[in-house]
Design a protein that fits this description.
By secondary structure, the chain is an alpha/beta fold. It is built from 15 helices and 26 strands. The chain has a 9-stranded mixed beta sheet with strand order 2-1-10-9-11-12-13-14-15. The protein has a 4-stranded parallel beta sheet with strand order 4-3-5-6, with helices on both faces. A 4-stranded antiparallel beta sheet has the order 16-17-20-21.
Length: 501
């Protein structure tokens, strides 16, 4: 099955129901299908090799995605926030593409290949567009560039069969009521943006896009649009909690489900959010671009059970990403490739129909179809997955491998800390020394020695940062990923040392 059939199913099942709302503009399911199939015909007539989308969320976005799928060419949403040189390099990697863009075309753009997104959308206002022929499920549907937080960005390849497998494994067709609405505030070039579009359309839910996040605007939109589902990254939820201040209730009675993911959540922020959104079910979703989005979920019942339990092992599950979805297999392996039992941390390997593990020109799947995520983590005895961070983040101090995530978790447990990172800087004696950077809660400034004592008491002296700094914020991508290399470079520059290669 290919992605075009998903839209055809949705249009047949929910025709006159509103599919997408952006600002004051909307399109129905039937209208979305008509414009998408008109786009497929236009893309075919132009004989383009791919469709690049460059801009914020807009009605043209789903049309371009499904139009490309129907025409059998890859859809490539690019990060519109990239610098001119980075953006030019990514555009050059897609010669012959149709580029649907917001605002002025990029520097050096040739006229025929570039079309404004509103012009593109308006040109498809026709009726009776024929549904395109079915495409090969193994054809490339989506090229998504990774964030490049630890290396140069590269394009992950997601084929029709990967995305359809994700939908069938996580969603029930038509499960949403006619009055349900999902608020999406993540950018279109991120896997979460694509997954939210596809899953909500497949369920029959109205999608409300919010392009520029601020907590007041987010809360206002939830209330005015009577949003029932929403997804945020942890930094967004932290800002919402901070904005609500001493309120006892968020005032969002329609909000039935709030999912979060993309980076680590500060326990204090999560606990406060659970208080403020008392009638809302919380969902922690874990996945990667290379796995077509979510592969594990910590659901509302898991949150409630952990919150109310006196058992430390159950309570600790608030820091997990939950259990694997049906169809996903996981192995935790050591560096020698041996499969580890529950409780022992190692590298996470995944296998399943939605797992791509492929980049342009390169597959990272082994002969048995396993993909190494490069994330470290462990399973508990009940199958709950705890992700400890990237293997590349490991700090080697005096020959000991130290996962910074466990130290960061201790720092984040302090009520005066809203964000934290621990990195390794070069040290002549130990190889690397531990340095922490903390973002204090508003109006607070914890004593660094108190924080060091907290780590020493929970862990041990070898895992205690030698120095802790306080910053107003940590450098993150707009999807919440921590830029550790930037932290290391800033710290090294301030101390007059060279950052590690």
């Amino acid at each position: 099955m290919h992605l075009g059939l998903v839209l055809d199913m949705a249009a047949s099942g929910f025709g006159d129901r509103t599919a997408v709302t952006v600002g004051g503009d909307s399109v129905t399911y039937a209208g979305l299908a008509e414009r998408s199939w008109a786009a497929s015909a236009q893309i075919g007539d132009r004989a383009v090799s791919s469709v690049v989308y460059l801009g914020t969320n807009h009605l043209a976005y789903p049309v371009a995605l499904f139009g490309a799928a129907g025409a059998g060419v890859p859809f490539v949403p690019l990060n519109y926030r990239l610098g001119a040189d980075q953006l030019a390099a990514q555009l050059e990697a897609h010669p012959g593409a149709l580029v649907v863009h917001e605002g002025e075309p990029p520097a050096g753009a040739d006229g025929d290949r570039f079309v404004g997104r509103q012009e593109f959308y308006d040109s498809l206002a026709v009726t009776g567009a024929a549904e395109p022929e079915a495409q090969d499920p193994d054809a490339t549907c989506l090229l998504l560039y990774t964030s490049g937080t630890t290396s140069a960005p590269k394009a992950a390849v997601l084929r029709h069969r990967h995305l359809v497998s994700y939908l069938f494994g996580t969603c029930e067709f038509g499960a949403a009521g006619h009055d349900e609405a999902a608020l999406v505030a993540v950018p279109p070039y991120h896997i979460a943006g694509v997954a939210n579009l596809l899953s909500n359309l497949y369920a029959g839910r109205r999608i409300v896009y919010l392009d520029r996040f601020d907590p007041e605007g987010w809360l206002r939109t939830v209330r005015e649009e009577r949003v029932t589902q929403a997804m945020v990254i942890p930094t967004m939820l932290a800002r919402i909690v901070e904005h609500l201040g001493e309120e006892t209730d968020a005032g969002t009675p329609s909000l039935a489900s709030l999912s979060y993911g993309g980076s680590r959540m500060a326990p204090a922020v999560l606990l406060r959010a659970l208080e403020l959104f008392g009638s809302t079910g919380f969902v922690n979703a874990y996945g990667l671009t290379e796995t077509s989005s979510t592969i594990a979920l910590l659901g509302p019942d898991d949150h409630r059970d952990a919150l109310s339990s006196a058992d430390p092992a159950v309570r600790a599950r608030l820091g997990s990403v939950g259990r694997l979805l049906p169809g996903i297999e996981l192995e935790v392996r050591d560096e020698a490739g041996r499969v580890l039992p529950p409780g022992e941390p190692g590298l996470l390997f995944l296998r399943g129909d939605q797992v791509s593990g492929e980049y342009t020109g390169t597959s990272l799947l082994d002969d048995d179809g396993w993909f190494c995520t490069r994330d470290r983590g462990h399973l508990d005895a009940e199958g709950y997955l705890f992700v400890e961070g990237r293997a590349d983040d490991t700090i080697i101090r005096g020959g000991e491998n130290i996962a910074p995530a466990e130290i960061e978790d201790v720092l984040l447990d302090h009520e005066g800390v809203v964000d934290a990172v621990v990195v390794g800087l070069p040290d002549d004696e130990w190889g690397q020394r531990l340095v922490g950077v903390v973002v204090p809660a508003e109006g607070g400034h914890p004593d660094p020695e108190e924080l060091r004592r907290l780590v020493r008491a929970r862990l041990r002296s070898s895992k205690t940062p030698e120095h802790i700094e306080f910053w107003d914020e940590l450098p993150r991508t707009d999807t919440g990923k921590l830029l550790r290399r930037t932290v290391i470079a800033r710290l090294a520059e301030a101390q007059g040392t060279a950052a590690p290669a």
